[in-house]
Specification:
The two termini are about 35 Å apart. The protein has 23 helices and 33 strands. Helix 2 runs parallel beside helix 3 and helix 8 packs parallel to helix 10. By secondary structure, it is α/β, with parallel strands linked by helices. It folds into three domains: about 425 residues, TIM Barrel (Alpha-Beta Barrel); about 350 residues, FAD/NAD(P)-binding domain, CATH 3.50.50; about 100 residues, FAD/NAD(P)-binding domain (3-Layer(bba) Sandwich), CATH 3.50.50.60.
Amino acid sequence: MAQVAAVVAHANARGPTSGFTDVSDDDFQLPPGYDRVGSKLFRPLKVGAFTLQHRIVHAALGRSRSIKGQESPLAVKYFSQRATPGGLIISQATGGKPEWMAWPFSASLHSEDQVRAVARIVEAVHEKGAFWFHQLTHVGRCTSPALVKLAWERAGHTEPPPYGYRSLSASEVEESGINTHSGEPFGKPHAVSKEQIKEIREDFKNSARNAERAGADGIEILAGNGFLLDQFLHDNINQRTDEYGGSIENRSRFVLEVIDDIAEIFGHQKIGVRISPFSNFHETDGSQPLAQLLHLTRELALRGVAYVHVGEARVSRNLDIEENLKRLLDKGISAEDISLRPFRDLLRKVRPVDPAYTPTVLFGAGGYTSTTAILTVDEDLADGVVFGRRFISNPDLVDRVRLGLQLTPYDRDTFYTHGAKGYTTYKNYDAGQGVKALGLNGTADGAPDSATNGRASNGITNGTGDHAGRKRLAIIGAGISGIVAASAFQRLGNDFEIQIFERKAVPGGSWVYDEVSNTVPNFPSENPESVNPPVLRPEGILPLTVPRNTQQRYTSTPLYSSLYANIPFDVMTGSSTFKLTDPMPEFAPYLSATQLVEGVASISHQYDDLIHYNTTVENVEKVGADDEKLRLILRTENADFTDTWSEEVFDFLIVATGHNSVPHVPAISGLDTWKGQLRHSTTWRSGEEFKAQSILVVGSSESAIDVTLQSLPHAKSPVYVSQRTPHPRFPTVFNRKGIEIVPTISHIDGNSIHLSNGAVLTDIDTIVFSTGYFYTYPFLNHIRPSAPSGQRVPGLYQHIFDIYNPNIAFIGVATGTLAWLAWEKSAFLTALLWSGRIKLPPVEEQKKWEARRLVQTGPKDKMFHILAQPSDRVIYFDELNEIAGDYLNTEAPDDELLRSFPWDWIVSLGTGHARKAQFYGIPA
């Protein structure tokens, strides 16, 4: 195989034979004295209707900088930085109809706003004397059901298409693996009908019309990279028996129809076509890839398209290079032909049918260095070369290649992020500054370094400053969501004066260990408004000190010492303010309760200067001429067992009180007649508490699992578990000796527990309810809708923004294997909103979002805030990031929190599931 790789390397101008790896520009050098400046690479080239002044082309690069399909204003700067007189710039891959949008942050060219955004880019490129080709595509099956649903809803549909929320492809052949943009399987696609093919053709044509209106000089059609047109070219995907499948000619038909349709607008001489004959992008693994693509290239050359853009064999996203070479050799392709050579030979021979047309030229793409680019053209392997990654990090790439200057390394971590960093922040070569000028400038001029999280550099040292123009922000709760909220707001500098009110004597929220719980659950507790009512304000002028109020305020946490986290360490704390130590080997990849308690306390105490301890917010009132401010009624518990009541006025309020303190116990007929003990898992600390007892655990959550499994060695056998539905991730966890699963409780009569199947349990000592907690906010009862079920917070947009009170936000409401970063991201968005840097959609749109969510989660409120599926979490991150579009469209100094859900977190969650099953003793 090494010999084959060497042959391929030579056939590709000695290029690297590793797919998408970081290859040093020093790996291969030109001979001493080689005339770089005189290279053909820098000579004019006639390409269709245009004459390029050099042959270095900017590739189509999807960089995830579009917001809801619209190109960012940053793209104007990005492309202008890289445009040169007589150079060719290719846009990112662009879709058409909103129903077919690939994923959030991909580009479309459908609406008037999208056309205008592209027009601004084209104008900037033309001002530099460069040409602009707009690449059009349709991703086909390279999406997934959740993404199709999202696109369909954003297009205004309330019902799915007739074939469901399925992607489109040539045939119903599913791509394996997980979609990185949604974290879910790709799903079986819908095989497009002939009528749908016509619809897609018209959409390509309409996008081309829009590109023409935006001023584009030409169109590049993406018929490679595994997207829809490429799916039609490969017989492992295209299994059709009509005129679009079954033969090389038929499989080429759809692509050629699209080309001919667009030629009606631009003419063939202003069209380029991107193909990837040697890769298996998205499992395009047809039996005749070279023959198929050579046939297509012949047809393109006869039509006289401007160029064919061929991805070289060293680029294979799904396989390493040796695996890919073996795959191609097994198809009967010679090592020498795994190169540009067959396409070069064909294009030398085939001329356009119209003799007035310029013959089609060949562009090569894939991993070029300065040296291999020059050799590829000088040795006549291609007419031009297309750069992607190195054009990202070198705005002045053309000059650097011509003069042999050092190239700036690219930063992969910023390829698909959303802000300016790694997009418009790379610098041109500056001989006077040398190497320092070649790096990535991660912040805008004069901006603070976000790596400090703003804490040391933003000037905020306490919560009592009086900077002119600063807004007063109150945060209720010094748990994780409250602390990361403070950190997120501080990233903006001195915009806000922050005060945190914490009802306990220490910070940390749910991650504070109370050896003995002081919570006294109600049995039942179905109504949070009666279980946790507001505390009445004493009569008199505030501040006022009175005897201690004795009403229960649920200050204890449900934490038990044997607990370990439900979320893998790298996901739980990754990219957040909270940087905790790595898990102990016996718990990895999860943190133990001890590590969490100590780590959270250590970080939280760094914010002591902002925190008012032993202080509960008992009421919030609207004040001001237009109710634009909020008055907080505060109760501080003093050491002498008195309370001091006071009040303060703030501009904004963050509610970060968590939802694991007020226990929920369902109403069961006859519960008041029960003669044994009643417990809720919030007060449970050890399985030894049920030594020699017969217990019935109600519920199937993680707490129910821990109570059951840890009580098993101590309690009488069997331990009964009453569950309505099995645990969604560990449905078999209770299938073991010593545990008996029973159905739900119908009613209780004295010592008898009647089950819904007619069975009766007797001799049970204790019923343990692991039935969750309430969302309850008694201090907000006067200014926002109540939450009578306690299972959902009504009137929230994206689980964060109070639809009815624009100066109130909730942090930490959304749950379901979400990282702490989700809460910090939420708070940062809120800071951007309240500082005037971004806007929310109109209130009516926010209400529509809530209504859609209610429909999606069904009649049970308890699922509203739970992002149960991997795709829910991934898309949620993207939706939050899109809200920050106005900020991301600027040279924003800090975009670290505005990143997509990392792919490695999806992997960690998957592998962590298996590890947690091992902890629970579930067989693999």
